[in-house]
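Record format v2
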Amino acid sequence: MKAGPGIPSILKTAFVNALIALVLFSLMVGIRTEAGASGQLTYWTRFGELVSLVAAVFGGSIVLELLRQWIGPTGAEKLVPPAVKSGMSFIGRYVAAALLIFTLLVPVIFYNQRYILDLAILVLTYVMLGWGLNVVVGLAGLLDLGYVAFYAVGAYSYGLLATNFGWSFWVCLPLAGILAAFWGVLLGFPVLRLRGDYLAIVTLAFGEIIRLVIINWQELTGGPNGVSGIPRPSFFGIPLDNSDDGLAAKLGIEYSPTHRIVFLFYLILALALLTNWATIRLRRLPIGRAWEALREDEVACRALGINTTTTKLTAFATGAMFGGFAGAFFATRQGFISPESFTFQESALVLAIVVLGGMGSQLGVALSALAMIGGFELFRSLETYRMLVFGMAMVLIMIWRPRGLIGHRAPTVYLTKANAISSDLVKEGHG
Amino acid sequence: MSGDKILSVDRLAMRFGGIVAVQDLSFAAERKKITALIGPNGAGKTTVFNCITGFYKPSGGAIRLSHDGGSTIALERLNDFRIAKQAKVARTFQNIRLFPGMTALENLMVAQHNALMRASGFTFLGLIGAPRYRDAEKRAIDLATDWLKRVNLLDRADDAAGNFAYGDQRRLEIARAMCTEPALLCLDEPAAGLNARESAALSELLLSIRDELGTSILLIEHDMSVVMEISDHIVVMDHGVKIAEGTPREVRDDPKVIAAYLGADEEEAAAVMEGGS
């Protein structure tokens, strides 16, 4: 093994790191400010904590550098011993089935824990959104920063149709999907010529436009007040309430508000699984292969006679349609929607789920939605440090897995054996 | 020149701003023959290719493609993907453009996109798994397998194309172009970067495409050993204009061609002489 840098170099790195820490923490930790009794600004210094933090960074840098020398110049992946790796690949084969079975049983296991059921519904909503966006970003390689627009279109479609015309959820659900897909195509047309960063900026703007239109078109959308009194979903026409026509009365069981939660859980699970099934199916069809080919090389696609315009538009429309379904579900679950629910934050979160999961991987997206939404809840007890710990966890995962949790691509067709394709070869697109 | 012409380029001109890349170029490619377009670097060969395959819109002139059935298509009026889809012109690229993250088989399946799209009822029939689509997919896999066999890559069908050696990528790209079942195959420097053995295999492959499948081929090539061996007709370009054309023998002895190559690059001129002897 080649000898690493000497002690002076290690000390230098540690010193630089400590200096950066000093600059950062001197204001964040070193000086504490608070509003005083009469509203004036009071502050005091905390040099003790500052010194210990900087010292920790200094010491930590030295340890890290020594570790790096000891292990040698290897990729982070090689840190995982082979035994663990083979174990992981064994788990990997069954993790999807195990997760699905567990998910199906969640309402049974946690029947009396409303908090967990609500959280599970939230996670599944983001799984569905992630899978929907995965079609656009992961498969077609078109970076979409305005995905929340379609979520909003779906939610408002159902909210407005249901409150104004009294249409049932099951009629509105496909309509919400169709309307969202329509807006997907509308967005698609102007951005067809754009690539990469420019595409991302226009989609970002599109997301904001939809939100601003919702805020300002008061007569239709109620503006910032939102739409309230959105009907709850019925069990195919039978309401899930305490009345005599309710499902509980018909089945002759005692009514419990949990019934509706469990129903919502299975509803979003079914919608998410529909998204997953459709995506897996589409990948193996010519349209799905064309999406992936478009991500790999657009010029080659044109030379093979593939209409890149319609291919891109169908990707946008398909992704938007699933976003619209999820939006309709969101509206019926909340019973109230307002523009505040559809900020850029949501788009960024869904995109982060797709990127963290490994672009194009269905299982990866599901796992990362669980990690992002569930993990965020897990750190609730840390209160103020929640964001910090969460951010650090994200950074660590991206160092460990720079191409996402599931970083390889499965071929859509094979002659003898489906060899997983290393993510190093797969292009990210953004074309 | 006599015979059945598949492609006729008439007074083609291409200007980029003030720069004239191709000027008043006329030539024809015969059906079921191999036509080569040669010339020193910067002669405008790739520009001609890009005009024929729709990547550039020519500034002037006409490009006519006549199919077996007698129908004639004006290529200069079609844009990008329609040339491959309707006019059945396939091409490869000077710097290989495969889909590196997809397997060899997938690359060949993408090439059959349009046929499969129709069979899948524009996705709807395919989504419900209609037998008609399944049959079409099976046939598509068979065609791809056949081409993998021809280019000697069958055992690597399920490997990512990006992992292939350079020569294998070149052959796979030709196979992919052929999977679109073209009437005219345009190859942009197919022998670039190949060693002598691979070049010989390439010549054999191109000859078999011409003789067994009757596909017309138009190629740009610098490797004179390949050009002189397989071409039926050669068009020589320099500075955007045609300076000579004819059979390999005629072109080789043409003083203008020799001058062009000598003027441009001594090594290339020597290569012309050597390739022919």
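The beta strands of chain A are 31-35, 41-45, 227-228, 336-337.
Chain A has a mean pLDDT of 83.
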